[in-house]
Amino acid sequence: MEHKSLTDKIISTLGITSGEAESLAESFVSIIRNTVSEGDTVSLPGFGSFEPRFRAERVSVQPSTGRRLLVPPRVAVAFRPSATLKRRIRDISPMNANPDISDTSDDNQAEPND
Amino acid sequence: MNNKLTLPGISSLMSKQTGLSKKVCEDFVRELCQEASAALEVSETVRIKGLGSFRTIPVQPRRSVDVTSGENIEIAGHYKVSFTPSRDLSRAVNAPFGAFDTVEIPSDLPDDRLQESPSPEPVETENENIAPEETVQEEPLQEETVHEEPLQEETVHEEPETTHHHRSRHHHGSRRRWRFGLGFAAGFVTAAIIAGGAMLYIYRDRLIPDFSADGLSDTVIAEQWPASDGADTISNQEPGISEEAVPTRPSDSSGDMASAATEAVIDTITRTRYLTTMAKDHYGNFNLWPYIYEENSAILGHPDRIRPGTPVVVPPLSKYGVDPHNPEHIRIAKQKGADIYARYR
Prior knowledge:
Chain A has 114 residues and is of the alpha+beta class. Chain A has helices at 3-14, 18-37, 83-92, 101-110, and strands at residues 41-44, 48-55, 58-61, 68-71, 74-81.
């Protein structure tokens, strides 16, 4: 679902104008961006939370050439889905539709990987 | 840092930014989450402009061990949510480290060189500002470590040179950026050592007599200061003597003891005679009491709770290189006094 179709759905449900929806969406994103940039967590009930995660610098080695690269430290945004969302995704997914585990492994073969 | 922004907070911020009511903002966020969850449920990818994209990815069934029973179990295959932040968001959050690039490590660089790295200037300056207070606090510690003193002296001389090498290399090298992370911790420690070393070097004249006298235990001190010196001996000649006495001390420790013994005085705490009273009598300024305290720190606890009848050694001021008429020295003494009180807070 693209951004446009998502906002269109919200517009029809809430009865707001597309201009308002656009500014709300922008403001929402900018609040998440600013909060996470400051090292804080944004929590959305029933959906999940956005939090910054520090990744330490590390030395990575290219197996083919043996070159060593120093990868600098960075802060990444992580999304931690809420328990509700996790459950909904887990329950609805076709993989778990059949409770028999031996069958699910067959299903996995059929699933497009990623 | 480490705060949590929840829905009410988000909606009030959004309301301020957009001028719409909090209710609308809250509904918008709720609806957005609801729609996104619904789309994810049907394995649809949800993309939000400026934020990133969410999608469901399959997790293969795998074997595991039940931590409570220790039995082998199989975790069924399922789906989980994966979030990929947009480039804008990633950049904004990673801004503090945005200047760093991945760099190749030269193959001839030994592994241990990765640990040792120069420190960035901001850290250096911060530490140098803090340094004076640190060293003041360190003094009592150093007084105790008598036998280590010669070693410390050596390091003092070496340190400035080596660190200058580091710094110049650091300024000219293009590796500065990527070494920042590794260098941060090492730099902090190096800067602290430099500052401490510099202070030791500057005040070595003052500290060395300290070590030679203070390293001895109380009983030794008691033996060395004969009671015949009496409580009334007021050493007013001390400032004059200091210039002659100080240079001879580092070279000849036995001579140092002898000269110190002639100048130090033993006085006794009574109900009406405190460290400050003694400082006033012997030094002419009650603010200089911390030097008497430090001289006897091994037997004294809280400066306000000294048992009457306790004999204390009143050291000559020359030992600490203090001039009672120098306002700067008085200020340092006041600071020392505050530090002593701070220990018992």
